[in-house]
Amino acid sequence: xxxxxxxxxxxxxxxxxxxxxxxxxxxxxxxxxxxxxxxxxxxxxxxxxxxxxxxxxxxxxxxxxxxxxxxxxxxxxxxxxxxxxxxxxxxxxxxxx
Length: 97
Prior knowledge:
Layout: H1 2-22, H2 26-47, E1 49-50, E2 53-54, H3 56-96
Antiparallel strand pairs: 1-2
Helix pairs in contact: 1-2, 2-3
């Protein structure tokens, strides 16, 4: 039964990796990166289950990883917003000239 979760995690991992490589927009790359990390977390948890019980250390590491991913996603969204805002200002200045 755990094999299906490992395969699903690998598929999610590959889907996110392809998205990071293929997408051009920053927001699309960020969403693909989050999909990529979700696949990593699923594989990690799936491989840490022994005799029907999850390893508490692996669970704690994945929870920590989720919190770090949430924080870094929020920070990346702020940077993307600042980039687009700066780009828009530069275009307005060029239009005025």
